[in-house]
Design a protein that fits this description.
By secondary structure, this protein is an alpha+beta fold. The protein has helices at residues 3-11, 46-56, 91-100, 119-129, and strands at residues 18-28, 36-45, 60-62, 68-70, 77-79, 87-88, 134-137, 141-144, 159-163, 181-182. It has two domains: 3-100, no CATH class; 114-182, no CATH class.
Protein backbone atom coordinates (compact mmCIF):
# COMPACT_ATOMS: atom_id res chain seq x y z
CA UNK A 1 0.00 0.00 0.00
CA UNK A 2 1.25 3.46 -0.83
CA UNK A 3 1.76 6.07 1.89
CA UNK A 4 -0.82 8.34 0.23
CA UNK A 5 -3.48 5.60 0.37
CA UNK A 6 -2.69 4.83 4.00
CA UNK A 7 -2.98 8.50 5.01
CA UNK A 8 -6.25 8.95 3.10
CA UNK A 9 -7.77 5.88 4.77
CA UNK A 10 -6.62 6.91 8.25
CA UNK A 11 -8.09 10.41 7.74
CA UNK A 12 -11.54 8.78 7.46
CA UNK A 13 -11.27 6.94 10.79
CA UNK A 14 -12.18 8.08 14.31
CA UNK A 15 -8.87 9.49 15.61
CA UNK A 16 -9.75 8.56 19.21
CA UNK A 17 -10.56 4.90 18.44
CA UNK A 18 -8.08 2.44 19.94
CA UNK A 19 -6.85 -0.38 17.69
CA UNK A 20 -4.82 -3.56 18.19
CA UNK A 21 -1.59 -4.39 16.37
CA UNK A 22 -1.14 -0.97 14.80
CA UNK A 23 2.02 0.95 14.04
CA UNK A 24 4.17 3.67 15.56
CA UNK A 25 7.22 5.63 14.48
CA UNK A 26 8.42 5.55 10.85
CA UNK A 27 11.82 4.48 9.47
CA UNK A 28 13.42 3.08 6.34
CA UNK A 29 12.33 -0.56 5.85
CA UNK A 30 15.08 -3.18 6.24
CA UNK A 31 13.96 -5.18 3.16
CA UNK A 32 14.20 -2.34 0.65
CA UNK A 33 15.52 0.87 2.12
CA UNK A 34 13.50 3.07 -0.23
CA UNK A 35 10.30 1.64 1.34
CA UNK A 36 8.76 3.02 4.48
CA UNK A 37 8.66 0.92 7.64
CA UNK A 38 6.66 1.58 10.80
CA UNK A 39 7.47 0.08 14.18
CA UNK A 40 4.72 -2.31 15.29
CA UNK A 41 2.80 -1.45 18.47
CA UNK A 42 0.34 -3.62 20.42
CA UNK A 43 -2.21 -0.86 20.92
CA UNK A 44 -2.57 2.64 19.51
CA UNK A 45 -5.18 5.00 18.04
CA UNK A 46 -6.06 5.84 14.46
CA UNK A 47 -5.01 9.41 15.29
CA UNK A 48 -1.53 8.35 16.42
CA UNK A 49 -1.06 6.19 13.33
CA UNK A 50 -2.19 9.07 11.11
CA UNK A 51 0.28 11.41 12.83
CA UNK A 52 3.12 8.92 12.26
CA UNK A 53 2.15 8.37 8.62
CA UNK A 54 1.93 12.11 7.93
CA UNK A 55 5.30 12.68 9.63
CA UNK A 56 6.93 10.29 7.16
CA UNK A 57 5.70 12.14 4.06
CA UNK A 58 8.71 14.02 2.67
CA UNK A 59 10.96 12.82 5.51
CA UNK A 60 14.39 11.34 4.85
CA UNK A 61 15.52 8.23 6.74
CA UNK A 62 18.86 6.45 6.85
CA UNK A 63 18.84 2.91 5.45
CA UNK A 64 19.90 0.02 7.70
CA UNK A 65 23.31 -0.20 5.98
CA UNK A 66 23.53 3.48 5.08
CA UNK A 67 22.21 5.87 2.48
CA UNK A 68 19.42 8.43 2.74
CA UNK A 69 15.92 7.65 1.51
CA UNK A 70 13.16 10.25 1.18
CA UNK A 71 9.58 9.02 1.49
CA UNK A 72 6.88 10.31 -0.87
CA UNK A 73 3.19 9.69 -1.60
CA UNK A 74 3.91 6.58 -3.68
CA UNK A 75 6.31 4.94 -1.23
CA UNK A 76 5.28 1.40 -0.27
CA UNK A 77 4.49 0.94 3.44
CA UNK A 78 5.51 -1.92 5.73
CA UNK A 79 5.19 -2.74 9.42
CA UNK A 80 8.34 -4.07 11.07
CA UNK A 81 11.14 -3.10 13.38
CA UNK A 82 14.07 -1.10 11.98
CA UNK A 83 16.40 -4.12 11.97
CA UNK A 84 13.85 -6.47 10.33
CA UNK A 85 12.22 -6.81 6.92
CA UNK A 86 8.68 -5.52 7.36
CA UNK A 87 5.31 -6.94 6.38
CA UNK A 88 3.48 -5.04 3.65
CA UNK A 89 0.52 -2.96 4.87
CA UNK A 90 -2.59 -4.41 3.17
CA UNK A 91 -6.36 -4.18 3.32
CA UNK A 92 -6.23 -7.06 5.83
CA UNK A 93 -4.53 -4.70 8.31
CA UNK A 94 -7.21 -2.08 7.72
CA UNK A 95 -9.96 -4.63 8.25
CA UNK A 96 -8.35 -5.84 11.48
CA UNK A 97 -7.95 -2.27 12.74
CA UNK A 98 -11.52 -1.40 11.80
CA UNK A 99 -12.96 -4.55 13.37
CA UNK A 100 -10.98 -4.22 16.60
CA UNK A 101 -11.44 -0.45 17.01
CA UNK A 102 -12.92 0.61 20.33
CA UNK A 103 -13.63 4.01 21.77
CA UNK A 104 -11.72 4.89 24.95
CA UNK A 105 -14.95 5.09 26.96
CA UNK A 106 -16.10 1.57 26.06
CA UNK A 107 -15.82 -1.09 28.75
CA UNK A 108 -13.13 -3.74 28.48
CA UNK A 109 -14.08 -7.30 27.54
CA UNK A 110 -14.92 -9.32 30.61
CA UNK A 111 -14.57 -12.93 29.46
CA UNK A 112 -11.09 -12.46 28.05
CA UNK A 113 -8.59 -9.65 28.25
CA UNK A 114 -7.92 -7.83 24.99
CA UNK A 115 -4.41 -9.25 24.81
CA UNK A 116 -5.54 -12.86 25.32
CA UNK A 117 -7.46 -13.06 22.05
CA UNK A 118 -6.00 -14.56 18.86
CA UNK A 119 -6.49 -12.99 15.41
CA UNK A 120 -9.56 -15.05 14.48
CA UNK A 121 -11.20 -14.26 17.84
CA UNK A 122 -10.49 -10.57 17.31
CA UNK A 123 -12.02 -10.69 13.84
CA UNK A 124 -15.11 -12.54 15.09
CA UNK A 125 -15.46 -10.16 18.04
CA UNK A 126 -15.27 -7.13 15.74
CA UNK A 127 -17.77 -8.64 13.30
CA UNK A 128 -20.27 -9.25 16.12
CA UNK A 129 -19.83 -5.77 17.61
CA UNK A 130 -20.50 -4.15 14.24
CA UNK A 131 -23.54 -6.30 13.37
CA UNK A 132 -21.95 -8.64 10.80
CA UNK A 133 -22.48 -12.39 10.41
CA UNK A 134 -19.20 -13.30 8.69
CA UNK A 135 -16.82 -12.53 5.83
CA UNK A 136 -17.23 -12.88 2.08
CA UNK A 137 -15.17 -12.53 -1.07
CA UNK A 138 -17.50 -11.45 -3.88
CA UNK A 139 -18.57 -14.43 -6.05
CA UNK A 140 -15.92 -16.73 -4.57
CA UNK A 141 -16.44 -17.72 -0.96
CA UNK A 142 -17.93 -16.87 2.42
CA UNK A 143 -17.44 -17.88 6.04
CA UNK A 144 -19.59 -17.26 9.10
CA UNK A 145 -18.87 -16.43 12.72
CA UNK A 146 -17.84 -19.62 14.46
CA UNK A 147 -16.04 -20.88 11.35
CA UNK A 148 -13.99 -17.90 10.15
CA UNK A 149 -11.35 -18.56 7.52
CA UNK A 150 -11.81 -22.35 7.18
CA UNK A 151 -10.24 -22.38 3.70
CA UNK A 152 -6.85 -21.13 4.88
CA UNK A 153 -6.60 -19.16 1.62
CA UNK A 154 -5.98 -15.48 0.95
CA UNK A 155 -7.94 -13.24 3.34
CA UNK A 156 -6.92 -9.85 1.87
CA UNK A 157 -9.98 -9.51 -0.38
CA UNK A 158 -12.55 -10.55 2.22
CA UNK A 159 -15.17 -8.05 3.39
CA UNK A 160 -17.49 -8.11 6.42
CA UNK A 161 -21.04 -9.12 5.51
CA UNK A 162 -24.42 -10.38 6.70
CA UNK A 163 -26.57 -13.42 5.89
CA UNK A 164 -28.40 -12.91 2.56
CA UNK A 165 -30.64 -14.99 0.30
CA UNK A 166 -28.97 -16.11 -2.88
CA UNK A 167 -28.21 -18.93 -5.28
CA UNK A 168 -25.48 -21.43 -4.50
CA UNK A 169 -23.79 -21.28 -7.89
CA UNK A 170 -20.92 -18.88 -7.39
CA UNK A 171 -19.63 -19.31 -3.87
CA UNK A 172 -17.52 -21.96 -2.18
CA UNK A 173 -16.16 -23.20 -5.52
CA UNK A 174 -19.63 -24.38 -6.56
CA UNK A 175 -19.93 -26.76 -3.59
CA UNK A 176 -23.31 -26.79 -1.85
CA UNK A 177 -23.55 -24.55 1.20
CA UNK A 178 -26.21 -23.77 3.79
CA UNK A 179 -25.69 -19.99 3.97
CA UNK A 180 -24.73 -16.94 1.94
CA UNK A 181 -22.93 -13.81 3.14
CA UNK A 182 -23.18 -10.50 1.30
CA UNK A 183 -23.05 -6.74 1.74
CA UNK A 184 -24.84 -5.13 4.65
CA UNK A 185 -27.54 -2.68 3.52
Amino acid sequence: MYLKQLIEWLEKQDPEAVVKDGFGSPHSDRGHYENLGFNPVEETTFGAMLENARSALGATFEGYKGGDYTMHEYTDCFIGRYSECGESVTSAHMQLWHLTATNPGQSKRKAKGKHDMNLMELIEDGLKRHGYDGLFYESQCACKIGDIYPCGGEINGCEPGVFVDGPCDSCCGGAPCDFHIGKKD
